[in-house]
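Re: [ENG-882] Designed sequences occasionally contain unexpected residues at chain ends

Forwarding the minimal case from QA. C-alpha coordinates:
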Protein backbone atom coordinates (compact mmCIF):
# COMPACT_ATOMS: atom_id res chain seq x y z
CA UNK A 1 0.00 0.00 0.00
CA UNK A 2 2.83 2.39 0.80
CA UNK A 3 5.23 1.26 -1.88
CA UNK A 4 7.56 -0.19 0.74
CA UNK A 5 10.29 -2.71 0.25
CA UNK A 6 9.43 -6.30 1.00
CA UNK A 7 8.17 -6.77 4.51
CA UNK A 8 10.99 -9.18 5.33
CA UNK A 9 13.22 -6.12 5.71
CA UNK A 10 10.97 -4.45 8.23
CA UNK A 11 11.63 -4.93 11.96
CA UNK A 12 7.99 -5.84 12.57
CA UNK A 13 7.51 -8.18 9.66
CA UNK A 14 8.30 -11.37 11.54
CA UNK A 15 5.27 -10.92 13.76
CA UNK A 16 3.00 -10.16 10.84
CA UNK A 17 1.79 -7.02 12.62
CA UNK A 18 1.50 -3.64 10.99
CA UNK A 19 4.39 -1.44 12.16
CA UNK A 20 3.47 1.29 14.63
CA UNK A 21 4.22 4.05 12.12
CA UNK A 22 1.80 2.81 9.45
CA UNK A 23 -0.77 5.31 8.24
CA UNK A 24 -3.52 4.67 5.73
CA UNK A 25 -3.79 8.23 4.50
CA UNK A 26 -0.14 9.05 3.90
CA UNK A 27 1.58 7.80 0.76
CA UNK A 28 5.35 8.34 1.03
CA UNK A 29 5.99 7.58 -2.65
CA UNK A 30 9.30 5.84 -2.04
CA UNK A 31 10.34 5.92 -5.68
CA UNK A 32 10.02 9.69 -5.70
CA UNK A 33 11.82 9.85 -2.32
CA UNK A 34 14.76 7.93 -3.77
CA UNK A 35 14.96 10.31 -6.71
CA UNK A 36 14.72 13.24 -4.30
CA UNK A 37 17.69 11.87 -2.36
CA UNK A 38 19.82 12.14 -5.51
CA UNK A 39 18.59 15.69 -6.03
CA UNK A 40 19.48 16.45 -2.40
CA UNK A 41 23.09 15.45 -3.03
CA UNK A 42 23.26 17.59 -6.14
CA UNK A 43 21.80 20.63 -4.38
CA UNK A 44 24.02 20.15 -1.33
CA UNK A 45 27.15 20.17 -3.45
CA UNK A 46 25.88 23.16 -5.45
CA UNK A 47 25.95 25.41 -2.35
CA UNK A 48 29.46 26.56 -1.47
CA UNK A 49 30.39 27.18 2.20
CA UNK A 50 30.34 30.96 1.64
CA UNK A 51 26.90 30.79 0.05
CA UNK A 52 25.65 28.66 2.94
CA UNK A 53 26.96 31.23 5.43
CA UNK A 54 25.14 34.03 3.60
CA UNK A 55 21.94 32.01 3.61
CA UNK A 56 22.32 31.26 7.32
CA UNK A 57 22.83 34.97 8.03
CA UNK A 58 19.68 35.74 6.05
CA UNK A 59 17.74 33.22 8.13
CA UNK A 60 19.22 34.53 11.37
CA UNK A 61 18.11 38.08 10.61
CA UNK A 62 14.56 36.99 9.82
CA UNK A 63 13.85 34.20 12.30
CA UNK A 64 15.67 34.88 15.56
CA UNK A 65 15.06 38.64 16.15
CA UNK A 66 11.35 38.38 15.35
CA UNK A 67 10.73 35.41 17.63
CA UNK A 68 12.91 36.94 20.36
CA UNK A 69 10.89 40.16 20.37
CA UNK A 70 7.68 38.14 20.37
CA UNK A 71 8.72 36.16 23.43
CA UNK A 72 10.24 39.20 25.13
CA UNK A 73 6.82 40.87 25.06
CA UNK A 74 5.10 37.64 26.14
CA UNK A 75 7.39 37.23 29.14
CA UNK A 76 7.12 40.94 29.94
CA UNK A 77 3.32 40.80 29.99
CA UNK A 78 3.47 37.61 32.06
CA UNK A 79 5.83 38.83 34.78
CA UNK A 80 5.13 42.57 34.94
CA UNK A 81 2.71 41.78 37.75
CA UNK A 82 5.79 41.60 39.99
CA UNK A 83 6.65 45.21 39.08
CA UNK A 84 3.01 46.24 39.44
CA UNK A 85 2.92 44.76 42.93
CA UNK A 86 5.67 47.14 44.03
CA UNK A 87 3.52 50.09 42.86
CA UNK A 88 0.42 49.22 44.87
CA UNK A 89 -1.51 46.49 43.05
CA UNK A 90 -2.06 44.40 46.18
CA UNK A 91 -3.13 47.32 48.35
CA UNK A 92 -5.60 48.86 45.86
CA UNK A 93 -7.23 45.52 45.05
CA UNK A 94 -7.18 44.65 48.78
CA UNK A 95 -5.48 41.29 48.26
CA UNK A 96 -5.09 39.30 51.46
CA UNK A 97 -3.05 36.30 52.61
CA UNK A 98 -2.13 34.17 49.54
CA UNK A 99 -4.53 35.81 47.05
CA UNK A 100 -1.63 37.37 45.15
CA UNK A 101 0.02 33.94 44.90
CA UNK A 102 -3.26 32.43 43.66
CA UNK A 103 -3.47 35.10 40.95
CA UNK A 104 0.00 34.05 39.81
CA UNK A 105 -0.99 30.38 39.87
CA UNK A 106 -4.16 30.66 37.78
CA UNK A 107 -2.06 31.74 34.80
CA UNK A 108 -0.45 28.31 34.56
CA UNK A 109 -3.66 26.24 34.36
CA UNK A 110 -4.53 26.98 30.72
CA UNK A 111 -0.88 27.61 29.90
CA UNK A 112 -0.04 23.99 30.74
CA UNK A 113 -3.17 22.28 29.41
CA UNK A 114 -3.10 23.79 25.92
CA UNK A 115 0.62 23.49 25.07
CA UNK A 116 0.32 20.41 22.83
CA UNK A 117 -2.93 21.49 21.09
CA UNK A 118 -1.29 24.85 20.40
CA UNK A 119 1.66 23.27 18.60
CA UNK A 120 -0.72 21.13 16.54
CA UNK A 121 -2.60 24.30 15.53
CA UNK A 122 0.69 26.05 14.80
CA UNK A 123 1.51 23.43 12.19
CA UNK A 124 -2.02 23.45 10.78
CA UNK A 125 -2.58 27.23 10.57
CA UNK A 126 1.03 28.32 9.88
CA UNK A 127 3.18 30.18 12.44
CA UNK A 128 2.68 33.75 11.16
CA UNK A 129 -1.09 33.48 11.64
CA UNK A 130 -1.28 31.52 14.88
CA UNK A 131 1.51 33.33 16.75
CA UNK A 132 0.41 36.84 15.73
CA UNK A 133 -3.22 36.15 16.73
CA UNK A 134 -2.08 34.80 20.11
CA UNK A 135 0.21 37.80 20.53
CA UNK A 136 -2.59 40.29 19.95
CA UNK A 137 -4.70 38.26 22.39
CA UNK A 138 -2.30 38.44 25.32
CA UNK A 139 -1.61 42.12 24.62
CA UNK A 140 -5.34 42.86 24.84
CA UNK A 141 -5.69 40.82 28.04
CA UNK A 142 -2.74 42.70 29.58
CA UNK A 143 -4.53 46.00 28.90
CA UNK A 144 -7.63 44.60 30.60
CA UNK A 145 -5.47 43.58 33.55
CA UNK A 146 -4.75 47.26 34.11
CA UNK A 147 -8.48 47.99 34.32
CA UNK A 148 -9.58 45.36 36.87
CA UNK A 149 -11.28 46.56 40.05
CA UNK A 150 -11.14 43.53 42.31
CA UNK A 151 -9.59 40.14 43.00
CA UNK A 152 -12.07 38.28 40.76
CA UNK A 153 -11.20 40.49 37.81
CA UNK A 154 -7.50 39.88 38.37
CA UNK A 155 -8.06 36.10 38.42
CA UNK A 156 -10.06 36.22 35.18
CA UNK A 157 -7.45 38.25 33.30
CA UNK A 158 -4.58 36.08 34.54
CA UNK A 159 -6.44 32.97 33.35
CA UNK A 160 -6.97 34.37 29.85
CA UNK A 161 -3.40 35.64 29.79
CA UNK A 162 -2.22 32.05 30.31
CA UNK A 163 -4.60 30.83 27.59
CA UNK A 164 -3.37 33.30 24.97
CA UNK A 165 0.32 32.87 25.84
CA UNK A 166 0.25 29.08 25.80
CA UNK A 167 1.67 28.72 22.29
CA UNK A 168 4.43 31.33 22.41
CA UNK A 169 7.33 29.45 23.97
CA UNK A 170 6.88 25.87 22.68
CA UNK A 171 5.77 27.18 19.29
CA UNK A 172 8.82 29.38 18.89
CA UNK A 173 11.20 26.65 20.02
CA UNK A 174 9.57 24.18 17.66
CA UNK A 175 9.81 26.66 14.78
CA UNK A 176 13.48 27.47 15.43
CA UNK A 177 14.26 23.76 15.55
CA UNK A 178 12.91 23.31 12.03
CA UNK A 179 15.36 25.88 10.63
CA UNK A 180 18.73 24.91 12.13
CA UNK A 181 21.01 21.91 12.44
CA UNK A 182 21.70 20.57 15.92
CA UNK A 183 25.33 21.72 15.86
CA UNK A 184 24.37 25.36 15.24
CA UNK A 185 21.14 25.66 17.23
CA UNK A 186 22.33 26.43 20.77
CA UNK A 187 23.44 30.03 20.13
CA UNK A 188 20.13 30.73 18.44
CA UNK A 189 18.11 29.08 21.19
CA UNK A 190 20.01 30.92 23.91
CA UNK A 191 19.59 34.27 22.19
CA UNK A 192 15.88 33.59 21.85
CA UNK A 193 15.59 32.38 25.44
CA UNK A 194 17.68 35.36 26.51
CA UNK A 195 14.68 37.49 25.63
CA UNK A 196 13.34 36.45 29.05
CA UNK A 197 16.37 38.07 30.68
CA UNK A 198 16.03 41.13 28.46
CA UNK A 199 12.33 41.27 29.35
CA UNK A 200 13.25 41.26 33.04
CA UNK A 201 15.78 44.04 32.54
CA UNK A 202 13.54 46.02 30.20
CA UNK A 203 10.57 45.50 32.51
CA UNK A 204 12.44 46.93 35.47
CA UNK A 205 13.54 50.02 33.55
CA UNK A 206 10.11 50.49 32.01
CA UNK A 207 8.33 50.06 35.35
CA UNK A 208 10.62 52.62 37.02
CA UNK A 209 9.61 55.15 34.33
CA UNK A 210 5.92 54.25 34.02
CA UNK A 211 5.57 54.17 37.80
CA UNK A 212 6.09 57.94 37.80
CA UNK A 213 2.73 58.26 36.02
CA UNK A 214 1.13 57.48 39.39
CA UNK A 215 -2.12 59.47 39.55
CA UNK A 216 -2.41 60.33 35.85
CA UNK A 217 -6.09 60.13 34.78
CA UNK A 218 -6.82 58.91 38.29
CA UNK A 219 -4.91 55.64 37.78
CA UNK A 220 -2.17 54.41 40.07
CA UNK A 221 1.20 53.58 38.52
CA UNK A 222 0.62 49.81 38.49
CA UNK A 223 -2.34 50.19 36.14
CA UNK A 224 -0.29 52.17 33.62
CA UNK A 225 2.35 49.42 33.64
CA UNK A 226 -0.24 46.92 32.36
CA UNK A 227 -2.03 49.32 29.98
CA UNK A 228 1.03 50.71 28.20
CA UNK A 229 2.93 47.42 27.96
CA UNK A 230 -0.19 45.65 26.68
CA UNK A 231 -0.79 48.38 24.12
CA UNK A 232 2.78 48.00 22.86
CA UNK A 233 2.21 44.25 22.40
CA UNK A 234 -0.99 44.80 20.38
CA UNK A 235 0.73 47.24 18.02
CA UNK A 236 3.66 44.90 17.45
CA UNK A 237 1.26 41.96 16.84
CA UNK A 238 -0.23 43.75 13.82
CA UNK A 239 3.24 44.23 12.34
CA UNK A 240 4.36 40.69 13.14
CA UNK A 241 1.49 39.14 11.17
CA UNK A 242 3.54 40.05 8.09
CA UNK A 243 7.03 39.23 9.39
CA UNK A 244 6.80 36.11 11.59
CA UNK A 245 8.54 33.35 9.59
CA UNK A 246 6.77 30.15 8.61
CA UNK A 247 8.40 26.73 8.25
CA UNK A 248 11.21 26.48 5.64
CA UNK A 249 9.01 24.75 3.07
CA UNK A 250 6.58 27.72 3.16
CA UNK A 251 9.03 30.63 3.50
CA UNK A 252 8.17 33.08 0.71
CA UNK A 253 11.11 35.35 1.57
CA UNK A 254 13.52 32.67 0.35
CA UNK A 255 14.03 31.62 -3.25
CA UNK A 256 12.84 28.17 -4.28
CA UNK A 257 16.43 26.94 -4.38
CA UNK A 258 17.12 28.34 -0.90
CA UNK A 259 13.98 26.72 0.52
CA UNK A 260 15.02 23.38 -0.88
CA UNK A 261 18.55 23.72 0.44
CA UNK A 262 17.42 24.55 3.98
CA UNK A 263 15.38 21.34 3.99
CA UNK A 264 18.21 19.34 2.42
CA UNK A 265 20.80 20.35 5.03
CA UNK A 266 18.44 19.31 7.82
CA UNK A 267 17.60 16.00 6.13
CA UNK A 268 21.31 15.24 5.82
CA UNK A 269 21.68 15.55 9.59
CA UNK A 270 18.31 14.50 10.99
CA UNK A 271 16.49 12.61 8.22
CA UNK A 272 13.15 13.50 6.68
CA UNK A 273 10.63 15.41 8.79
CA UNK A 274 7.25 14.27 7.35
CA UNK A 275 6.23 17.93 7.29
CA UNK A 276 3.63 17.19 4.62
CA UNK A 277 1.61 14.85 6.86
CA UNK A 278 -0.70 16.26 9.56
CA UNK A 279 -0.21 15.24 13.19
CA UNK A 280 -2.76 12.66 14.35
CA UNK A 281 -3.73 11.31 17.77
CA UNK A 282 -1.69 8.16 17.11
CA UNK A 283 1.41 10.30 16.56
CA UNK A 284 0.92 11.87 19.97
CA UNK A 285 0.51 8.49 21.66
CA UNK A 286 3.59 7.06 19.95
CA UNK A 287 5.75 9.91 21.19
CA UNK A 288 4.97 9.02 24.81
CA UNK A 289 6.13 5.44 24.35
CA UNK A 290 9.69 6.73 24.61
CA UNK A 291 10.74 7.11 28.28
CA UNK A 292 13.22 9.89 27.38
CA UNK A 293 10.22 12.14 26.72
CA UNK A 294 9.34 12.01 30.42
CA UNK A 295 12.95 12.54 31.49
CA UNK A 296 13.09 15.64 29.29
CA UNK A 297 10.01 16.98 31.05
CA UNK A 298 11.65 16.64 34.47
CA UNK A 299 14.84 18.29 33.23
CA UNK A 300 12.87 21.44 32.47
CA UNK A 301 10.40 21.10 35.36
CA UNK A 302 13.19 21.25 37.92
CA UNK A 303 14.45 24.62 36.65
CA UNK A 304 11.06 26.24 36.15
CA UNK A 305 10.52 26.48 39.92
CA UNK A 306 13.59 28.68 40.59
CA UNK A 307 13.13 30.52 37.27
CA UNK A 308 9.60 31.71 38.03
CA UNK A 309 10.41 32.20 41.71
CA UNK A 310 13.06 34.67 40.64
CA UNK A 311 10.89 36.33 37.98
CA UNK A 312 7.89 36.83 40.29
CA UNK A 313 9.57 37.53 43.63
CA UNK A 314 13.01 39.08 42.96
CA UNK A 315 11.67 42.68 43.09
CA UNK A 316 10.06 41.97 46.46
CA UNK A 317 13.26 40.34 47.76
CA UNK A 318 15.36 43.28 46.57
CA UNK A 319 12.99 45.70 48.28
CA UNK A 320 13.71 44.00 51.63
CA UNK A 321 17.30 45.24 51.27
CA UNK A 322 16.03 48.73 52.07
CA UNK A 323 15.50 50.28 48.64
CA UNK A 324 12.66 52.58 47.57
CA UNK A 325 10.11 51.53 44.95
CA UNK A 326 11.99 53.21 42.07
CA UNK A 327 15.37 51.94 43.33
CA UNK A 328 13.97 48.42 43.59
CA UNK A 329 12.96 48.46 39.92
CA UNK A 330 16.38 49.76 38.87
CA UNK A 331 18.31 47.28 41.01
CA UNK A 332 16.32 44.44 39.45
CA UNK A 333 17.87 45.19 36.03
CA UNK A 334 21.61 44.22 36.40
CA UNK A 335 21.06 40.52 37.35
CA UNK A 336 18.85 40.05 34.28
CA UNK A 337 21.43 41.71 32.03
CA UNK A 338 24.21 39.54 33.49
CA UNK A 339 22.15 36.37 32.93
CA UNK A 340 21.71 37.21 29.24
CA UNK A 341 25.45 37.75 28.76
CA UNK A 342 26.39 34.57 30.62
CA UNK A 343 23.80 32.53 28.67
CA UNK A 344 25.33 33.65 25.37
CA UNK A 345 28.83 32.69 26.57
CA UNK A 346 27.58 29.24 27.60
CA UNK A 347 25.81 28.84 24.25
CA UNK A 348 28.91 29.83 22.27
CA UNK A 349 31.12 27.20 23.87
CA UNK A 350 28.36 24.58 23.82
CA UNK A 351 27.98 24.97 20.06
CA UNK A 352 31.74 25.21 19.53
CA UNK A 353 32.47 21.81 21.06
CA UNK A 354 29.05 20.34 20.09
CA UNK A 355 28.22 19.28 23.64
CA UNK A 356 25.27 20.01 25.93
CA UNK A 357 25.38 17.98 29.14
CA UNK A 358 28.31 19.74 30.83
CA UNK A 359 26.81 23.11 29.96
CA UNK A 360 23.66 22.25 31.88
CA UNK A 361 25.49 21.10 35.01
CA UNK A 362 27.90 24.04 35.32
CA UNK A 363 25.20 26.78 35.42
CA UNK A 364 23.08 24.61 37.70
CA UNK A 365 25.94 24.45 40.22
CA UNK A 366 26.27 28.25 40.05
CA UNK A 367 22.56 28.66 40.85
CA UNK A 368 22.75 26.23 43.77
CA UNK A 369 25.66 28.22 45.20
CA UNK A 370 23.65 31.43 44.90
CA UNK A 371 20.65 30.01 46.73
CA UNK A 372 22.98 28.58 49.37
CA UNK A 373 24.32 32.06 50.10
CA UNK A 374 20.80 33.47 50.33
CA UNK A 375 19.84 30.81 52.88
CA UNK A 376 22.75 31.44 55.27
CA UNK A 377 23.59 35.16 54.81
CA UNK A 378 21.08 37.71 56.08
CA UNK A 379 23.13 40.71 57.22
CA UNK A 380 25.22 41.52 54.13
CA UNK A 381 23.00 43.06 51.47
CA UNK A 382 25.84 43.43 48.96
CA UNK A 383 26.60 39.71 49.16
CA UNK A 384 22.90 38.83 49.01
CA UNK A 385 22.47 41.01 45.94
CA UNK A 386 25.50 39.29 44.39
CA UNK A 387 23.89 35.92 45.10
CA UNK A 388 20.86 37.02 43.06
CA UNK A 389 23.26 37.46 40.13
CA UNK A 390 24.44 33.88 40.59
CA UNK A 391 20.86 32.58 40.71
CA UNK A 392 19.74 34.45 37.60
CA UNK A 393 22.90 33.62 35.63
CA UNK A 394 22.78 29.93 36.57
CA UNK A 395 19.09 29.23 36.04
CA UNK A 396 18.56 31.29 32.91
CA UNK A 397 21.72 29.91 31.27
CA UNK A 398 20.94 26.24 31.91
CA UNK A 399 17.31 26.38 30.75
CA UNK A 400 17.92 27.15 27.05
CA UNK A 401 20.60 24.45 26.88
CA UNK A 402 18.20 21.88 28.35
CA UNK A 403 15.37 22.78 25.97
CA UNK A 404 17.65 22.94 22.93
CA UNK A 405 19.34 19.64 23.81
CA UNK A 406 16.05 17.81 24.20
CA UNK A 407 14.25 19.49 21.31
CA UNK A 408 17.02 19.05 18.75
CA UNK A 409 17.44 15.38 19.68
CA UNK A 410 13.84 14.77 18.58
CA UNK A 411 13.66 13.79 14.91
CA UNK A 412 10.87 14.85 12.55
CA UNK A 413 7.98 17.33 12.69
CA UNK A 414 5.67 15.06 14.66
CA UNK A 415 7.97 13.98 17.47
CA UNK A 416 9.45 17.46 17.77
CA UNK A 417 6.11 19.26 17.82
CA UNK A 418 4.62 16.95 20.46
CA UNK A 419 7.82 16.44 22.47
CA UNK A 420 8.65 20.13 22.72
CA UNK A 421 5.11 21.05 23.75
CA UNK A 422 5.15 18.26 26.35
CA UNK A 423 8.45 19.36 27.85
CA UNK A 424 7.35 22.99 28.12
CA UNK A 425 3.82 22.12 29.25
CA UNK A 426 4.83 19.61 31.90
CA UNK A 427 7.74 21.77 32.99
CA UNK A 428 5.49 24.74 33.58
CA UNK A 429 3.68 22.84 36.32
CA UNK A 430 6.71 24.02 38.26
CA UNK A 431 5.37 27.54 37.84
CA UNK A 432 2.45 26.62 40.10
CA UNK A 433 4.88 25.44 42.76
CA UNK A 434 6.96 28.60 42.34
CA UNK A 435 3.99 30.89 42.98
CA UNK A 436 3.53 29.39 46.46
CA UNK A 437 7.22 29.05 47.31
CA UNK A 438 7.61 32.62 48.61
CA UNK A 439 4.72 33.45 50.94
CA UNK A 440 4.24 36.74 52.84
CA UNK A 441 4.71 35.05 56.22
CA UNK A 442 8.11 33.68 55.12
CA UNK A 443 9.56 37.19 54.96
CA UNK A 444 10.28 37.07 58.71
CA UNK A 445 12.38 33.95 58.14
CA UNK A 446 14.32 35.56 55.25
CA UNK A 447 12.44 33.40 52.72
CA UNK A 448 14.42 30.30 53.71
CA UNK A 449 11.58 27.88 52.76
CA UNK A 450 11.45 29.36 49.25
CA UNK A 451 15.20 29.15 48.75
CA UNK A 452 15.23 25.56 50.02
CA UNK A 453 12.44 24.56 47.62
CA UNK A 454 14.39 26.08 44.73
CA UNK A 455 17.54 24.13 45.61
CA UNK A 456 15.58 20.87 45.81
CA UNK A 457 14.08 21.30 42.35
CA UNK A 458 17.37 22.38 40.81
CA UNK A 459 18.88 19.14 42.10
CA UNK A 460 15.96 17.26 40.48
CA UNK A 461 16.81 18.92 37.18
CA UNK A 462 20.50 17.99 37.51
CA UNK A 463 19.62 14.35 38.24
CA UNK A 464 17.27 14.25 35.24
CA UNK A 465 19.99 15.68 32.99
CA UNK A 466 22.30 12.92 34.17
CA UNK A 467 19.69 10.24 33.38
CA UNK A 468 19.01 11.75 29.94
CA UNK A 469 22.72 11.93 29.10
CA UNK A 470 23.23 8.33 30.17
CA UNK A 471 20.25 7.27 28.04
CA UNK A 472 21.66 9.03 24.97
CA UNK A 473 25.07 7.41 25.43
CA UNK A 474 23.55 3.97 25.99
CA UNK A 475 21.25 4.11 22.96
CA UNK A 476 23.99 5.47 20.69
CA UNK A 477 26.26 2.56 21.69
CA UNK A 478 23.47 0.03 21.19
CA UNK A 479 22.80 1.34 17.70
CA UNK A 480 26.50 1.26 16.83
CA UNK A 481 26.71 -2.41 17.82
CA UNK A 482 23.35 -3.52 16.38
CA UNK A 483 23.28 -5.15 12.93
CA UNK A 484 22.13 -2.83 10.20
CA UNK A 485 18.36 -2.96 9.70
CA UNK A 486 16.95 -2.36 6.23
CA UNK A 487 14.25 0.30 6.45
CA UNK A 488 12.44 2.20 3.74
CA UNK A 489 12.70 5.98 3.61
CA UNK A 490 9.11 6.15 4.82
CA UNK A 491 9.87 4.03 7.87
CA UNK A 492 12.91 6.15 8.72
CA UNK A 493 10.82 9.29 8.40
CA UNK A 494 8.06 7.97 10.64
CA UNK A 495 10.50 6.73 13.29
CA UNK A 496 12.29 10.09 13.54
CA UNK A 497 15.00 9.86 16.20
CA UNK A 498 13.96 6.26 16.92
CA UNK A 499 15.46 5.34 13.56
CA UNK A 500 18.42 2.99 14.26
CA UNK A 501 20.62 5.18 12.05
CA UNK A 502 19.94 8.28 14.17
CA UNK A 503 22.53 9.39 16.76
CA UNK A 504 21.73 11.53 19.79
CA UNK A 505 23.80 14.59 20.65
CA UNK A 506 25.33 14.51 24.11
Amino acid sequence: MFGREKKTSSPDSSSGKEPPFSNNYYDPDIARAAAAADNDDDLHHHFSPSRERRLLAKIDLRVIPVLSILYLLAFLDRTNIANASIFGLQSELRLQNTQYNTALTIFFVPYIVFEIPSNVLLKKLKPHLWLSVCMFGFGLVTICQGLVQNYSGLLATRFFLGLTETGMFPGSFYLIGMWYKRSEAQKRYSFFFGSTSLAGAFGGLLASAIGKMDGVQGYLGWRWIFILEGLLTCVVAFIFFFVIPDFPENAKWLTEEERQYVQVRLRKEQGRSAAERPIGFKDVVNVFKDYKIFVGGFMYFGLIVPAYSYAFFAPGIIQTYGYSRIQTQLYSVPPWAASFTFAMVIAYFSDKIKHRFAFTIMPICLAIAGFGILIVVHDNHHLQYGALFMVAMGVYSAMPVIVCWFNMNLGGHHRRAVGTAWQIGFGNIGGIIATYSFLPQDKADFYKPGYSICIAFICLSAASCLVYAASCIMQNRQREKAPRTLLTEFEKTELGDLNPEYRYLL
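QA comment: On inspection the terminal residues look reasonable. Residues 1-35 have pLDDT under 50 and may be disordered. Proposing we downgrade this to a documentation issue.
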